[in-house]
Write a structure and sequence with these properties.
It is a single chain. With 176 residues, the chain is an alpha+beta fold. Helix content is 44%, strand content 28%. The chain is built from five helices and four strands. Helix 4 crosses helix 5. The longest helix has 33 residues. The radius of gyration is 21 Å and the shape is elongated. The termini are far apart.
Amino acid sequence: MKRLAILGALALAPVLSGCGLHPLYAGGSSGPVAGALGQVEIAPIAGKNGWLMATALRDRLPSNGAPALYRIDIRLDDQISGLGVRTDDSVSRERRTLRARYQLVRIGDNSVLLDATAGSDAGIDVVRSEYATIAAENTALERLSQIVADQIVARVALYARNTPAVAAAQATTPAK
């Protein structure tokens, strides 16, 4: 069985090498994509959901010591809507939706390089305890901030990889 698995993997190797997949973070922390991501600053975002989003993005976009060349401007739309209704007309289930419209801006000339949206939603059980429901809503917001931040960073990383000018700017900027 083990030999069969090895032979199957060897047979697929030529097929997979020609499929066009390329590593996004080639070169690791010194590669062009990681370098470009290290030069992104996050503009202030209002509110609790903005603080959570900015913190999640800072965790994923640590500065590499070089001056920021890019800025991410984000507008958030955070909504809670009731879904299920009990026989006494009270809500039994909620959906929390977090959407972000973001722009990657070149700081030097304020040109918008990327204009996109990201978002996710989470279901929340509404229980008899108001405290438990509020805690569940807050936990959902924290999770959604992490998910949306992952989507934003992935999209910016793809943009950095696919745009030679971004990689070239990162390569010519001296690190501190």
